[in-house]
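Technical note accompanying the year-one report. For the benefit of new consortium partners, we illustrate the data format agreed upon in the data management plan: each record pairs a sequence with a structure-token string. No post-processing was applied to the example shown here.
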Amino acid sequence: MLLGATGLVGGHALSQLLADPRCSAVVAPSRRSLAAPHGKLHNPVLDFARLPDAPDWARMDAVICALGSTIAQAGSREAFHRIDHDYPLAFARLALAQGAQAFALNSAAGANPRSSIFYSRVKGELERDLRALRFPSLTLVRPGLIGGERQAVRRGEHFALQVLGVLGPVLPRAWRINPAPEIAHALVDAVLAAKPGEHVVPSRDLLLQVLRRHRRPVAGQALAEELGISLRTLYRDIETLREQGADLRGEAGVGYQLEPGDVLPPLTLPPAEIDALVLGLRWVAARTEPALAEAARDALARIAHVLPAARREALRDSGLRVGPSRTAATVPPARLQAVREAVGTQQRLQFAYEDAQGRRSERVVWPFALGYFDEVPMLAAWCEGREDFRHFRLDRIRRVRALPDHYLVPRATLLRRWQKAQGIAPDWLDPGQGHHDRSQPRSFPMFKPSTLLQYVRDVATSATFYRGILGTAPVEQSPGFALFLLGDGAALGLWQRDDVQPPVDAQAGAAELAMVVVDAATVQRMHDEWRGLGVRITQAPVTLEFGHTFVGVDPDGHRLRVYSRAEGMVARD
């Protein structure tokens, strides 16, 4: 039985089960019919809150549970608990009564029934209650963030995936991104093997990634040093990976090597597309700073590892090469990496700049695009001092440092406005253009939010909401607090309190976050974007004595006012 077949991981598990000859039939209960029929598939459509006592379809050997939601999708904590805890537990009891011997759960990193984080606590409670049922074989798969394309977009998770894609090398292994097919593969293998006892499968993608880069056996000590873990932890991780099905050859004192196998799904790209990927990755490995170059080499090793043997040999002997770069000697790698990371994290940058005439200036900018050219890399940014877009050659930048606060406007918005203002096609920055005509109109919005501390019922839910509307991540977040830095000394703090009640209209002014933008058109655009995000709007756009404005409401009922100053008022103060 497969629960959650309509989800990201469940969909991959369903495809793998239907294709696996070891599985004779799949029962996939769902609340709506699955689109594609199959000879091995039985799809009872049910009300999960009212399961039948002993249906014929409930006679199975094993259960895979990939059922899950988010608080935002479920609509409330109570609904989330029902979907992520009560429903899986009810199916588990039903399956056990009908003779099921194995249960594999797609849980989460950090699952703990005593966690102060609601999401982790619910996952931990489910694990605890499944243990109490005493399945002969129980497997708990605990991935970090799940990588892949969902049919239903989770905005907060999508943003986190983008950020973690940049920060992955410095994060704990448990919180790295795990591709959905790999998670599904671990679940499927667990129930088909049905090894007695309890088995916990954590996120170990980094160890696999390191092993893929090496063609020959690597000493355990060298692997442990590269991963920053102890030898004891390494040996434990290797044994767990072997239990998951990874073909790891070697032993302590000799070295380890990952043989080609099906730990990752095989690539089905045609030869020309693989050649294009290889050439692009080799360009990145040859022309960028060490961190990004290493990521390109990792990706190339990952592709080679899952290719058929004949294509792997052709890849190794490929004649597609990249010549030497002329930028390596002019831009220090540390400077290039600092700028690239600031673009990825949307942090303000401060640096000294010398233009073509030798004039020096100090700049604070909002970096949003970095162009790699044969002559020199160039940065596109909004310059606070010039109040306009500027392009900066990285070989003329000195003393660069990322400031602790993040700029407010989403990077994608800056990019679109820059393209429109400059008349430059997407993904193109001509290093010969220099600064654009100063006579062009300035249409960039300057946000001035109030510095505010807001009490919220759930920090995780509210932080996800504000990530969506602000387009930036909190600089600090714990189970009870989150802090957003929004530029020019402005800050928004979220503090969790269990007794928070939604404010009524008469009280709402005491908990109002104001955002000042440059014109009425920007007010209207933000209104449309917020509606698209599902924000509740309590006041439609209207022109009042102080300017054009509208009001939205956050998950706790706090008012969010966006307005442009009326004509004749000072635009910035």
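Partners are asked to follow this layout when depositing records. Residues 77-97 form the longest helix (21 residues).
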